[in-house]
Amino acid sequence: MKKFAAALAVVPMVFGLAACGSTNSSSSSSSKKVTIGVVGSEKFNKTLKEEAKKQGIDIEFKEFSAYTEPNPALDAGDIDMNRFQHIAYLSNYNVSANKDLQIVGPTVIYPMALFSKKHSKLADIPQGGEIVIPNDTVNEARALKLLKTNGLVTFKNADVDAPTIDDVDTANSKVKVTPVDATQTVVGMESADGAVVNNDFLKDAGLKPADALAQDDPKTDPSAIKYVNLFVAQKDKADDETYKKIVEIFHTKPVMDVVQEETRGTAVEVNVSTDELRQSLANEEAKLRAKK
Q1: CA end-to-end span of the chain, whole Å?
Q2: CATH code of the region 113-215
């Protein structure tokens, strides 16, 4: 894992410039259509679509309103790929749903941050204050770790790897933690002392990364590989050449420039092999199955 942190850099991905294959197992000289499920709408989707068109690939984006929707849609064959989740989320889905969705390739990794409309400094959050966090299993764990690192909560077991709200030692924690749907964390900021907000929602909420009271740092955290965001497909299509070409196009300068603009420079490009990411996925799934 030590080499992972060193591999996070804004550099082009190397997938090999292989000729594009068909997304539907049939060859054609016409454009190949690929439907990608996403949560929310980002400006860089348009750029990716434009750049892919130049390579003979017609991308259609299907927008979902919640994180729980794109994986079942992919399983059902309603979409060809999705791009919304990291390794930790995918491993949890595969194990809990008994599925085997697979990684096509990486996109970027985002820091997770704590914001507040009431306080300008972390130290200003009062004893007994309320912090809102995402309630899905994976983002809840990451948010709780962020709060622990910054002295806002204490765990009953200091060594817990994937903490849940039940692991919080409320009597010895500075704040009360309230899990809500990830889409509602921004709304929760209005009444709470702060909220841990996923990067997806910052721009629409008018939140600036520079205003975060605290955030984790994927560049220096060797365990951050589990939070690498991904293009994902059904297992038997994960090595489709067209799909891999889309990953490659995502990492070209025209797309990455817009990604950095959209994320206000917070996105960290990932230069890690797909094989290494798939091994990390397998490791995370094994840990989860061992807990069953």
Answers
A1: 25
A2: 3.40.190.10
